[in-house]
Design brief:
Translation Initiation Factor IF3, five-stranded mixed sheet, globular, UPF0033 domain-containing protein, TusA-like_sf, TusA-like
């Protein structure tokens, strides 16, 4: 699984609107959500993340996870590979690190 930005895009203040890309390859949504949770923990509010996911459950699981956490599901992204966009929220509800579909009690 790769985490990064598209080739040729700089990771600095010159390109703050570029999405962060999380390429999940053939991983199932359970694994993808664990990686996504780790990734968004280090991102600022308002950052767009594009998740490339071959799992057919992704269009169902991602909106549900966003509803649980408070992040914003932006929907599918046109392209050759199945890709979905989310926008990180300020002060999202936390989830268990190894079970991102379970809310963490504070």
């Amino acid at each position: 699984m790769t985490i990064g930005r598209p080739a040729g895009v700089r990771m600095n203040a010159d390109a703050p609107d570029d999405p962060v890309i999380l390429d999940g390859g053939d991983r199932r949504c359970v694994q993808l959500l664990i990686e996504l949770r780790r990734l968004v923990d280090d991102l600022p509010a308002g950052q767009v993340v594009h998740l490339i996911a071959a799992d057919p459950a992704a269009p169902v699981d991602l909106p549900a996870w966003c509803h649980l956490t408070g992040h914003h599901y932006l929907g599918p992204v046109p392209g050759e590979r199945p890709t979905y966009a989310i926008r990180t929220a300020p002060g999202p509800r936390t989830t268990h690190p190894d079970k991102p579909w379970h809310a963490r009690e504070n």
